[in-house]
């Protein structure tokens, strides 16, 4: 409460309480953090700013409307208090642990804080006042804002002026006072941005992916025609993916799940675009690439190609995963071997996880893990004297990767592709817009080290789950057991076949072009509810109890084996992406995309999280989902601060555009 109270000097030496600060009490210095002032060192260009506004602007407007609605709940006679934010302190709701953005309610007696969503849903979960020992009642709380003065409303006005000035399509909830039925978030990648050598800013908002740049001889008109041809030839709905099969079994299954299928009944059906190399090589002749998994999975072949971002955007704005290969060319192999980790960290204690039964083995010497990494006979044994499939749990732990592994951190940054997204300060990693005043969310990098399970199809290294942010995962080392090489290699290839890997992926491994490490199954974010419904149905079929506030995806309690994947396809029409990650492969996973990983061989992977403009809606949606998880759930607390990230992203983009 110290940053809320207004103090007055009553006499020469005494100070008394004079109520609460109001938004108008802020100083010019207080406002500086919240207004669009151009940073002379910014690397955000006008085209990048336009692209960000196109993708994040509508979500910002929804955020503003939510704040306005919350303000309307207060009585006209109530004064709004202003709480000055505290440097490097993350204010959270005392009910759901979500980060406070602006409007919230405070108990004047004990300082109990309630966010907009918890205030709206009522007092069922509110704790008693520690001062009065009475229940907290909505009418007794003080409505409070964090953003000083009218900075939030002013930024919203400036955003609308900027979008009109630059001809950026406005489809937000506040454009005409009426929300639109559909959100036009896709295919808004401007020609100016695609053309990296074009310095002329124009107001053209072409929806076609264009390859008109100075390094290409492609005719712009032909490229546009090819783009239209791709759309006509390649758009495939879920029914089409099933070969047009509409038999009674499928119809019945869909009718059974009508309740959740109707959630998005008023929205356009999600479509998956399939490509072939003949189509896209004409649009992107300067970007080496292939199409895997039936034409829906993009594989980029040159991680350092400066034009990768052009075709990457095309997939990413549809929340489709992308694989970028040959990143090992930038790695220093001696840094990433199991022997190097054993030599440097073998004496340290860390927890291990038995992937077979998810038991945590606490306080083991890391040498015990690394010694068995490529030697089955040296692995720790279970109660049946069988070698365990182990995973190194959360290592490095709380220490920052860059502090504990400085040389590897530097090398990892050199190897990660698309630094515009994957680096902490990347222009399309919008968390980079969060000022140093705030506590930055921990987005990594992190390491994932686990043995292979090619011989056991039901054991996953990482069970099905989804993340609140986007991520890139780079395979830095694959180890095949020296004492059982032939059996493990045959089992890995058979596992790939059973998983439904495409012919191109199988050929890549069978021909010896790469060493396979991990088998991924990634699903579209919009299919999450269908997957939940299946897993809940299977639990009911098995007579398993379902606990309150549990979630079959967030709890990471399932690995979808061949039987479950087949049911998901037949009963729900859900077909994911089957990916084999080899040494040097970086997999980009969109926020909100359910995914699982099964190590075929022993793997060392490094991953970095980020927040992209294209997937900010999923980040926002998941923040809301996590509020309802148990307080003891690892995902319950909101550490991403997505509302703060959105505000300062728009603030910085507007500052660039209004000063251009």
TrEMBL record:
The record's top EC class is oxidoreductase
Instruction: Give the location in the cell.
Output: Nucleus
Its GO biological process annotations read: regulation of transcription by RNA polymerase II
* Keyword terms, alphabetized: Iron, Metal-binding, Nucleus, Oxidoreductase
Is Heme set as a keyword in this record?
no
Q: Which reaction does it catalyse?
A: N(6),N(6)-dimethyl-L-lysyl(9)-[histone H3] + 2 2-oxoglutarate + 2 O2 = L-lysyl(9)-[histone H3] + 2 formaldehyde + 2 succinate + 2 CO2
Instruction: Look up the domain of life of the source.
Output: Eukaryota
| Name the UniProt record assigns to this protein | [histone H3]-dimethyl-L-lysine(9) demethylase
Output the lineage of the source organism.
Answer: Eukaryota, Metazoa, Spiralia, Lophotrochozoa, Annelida
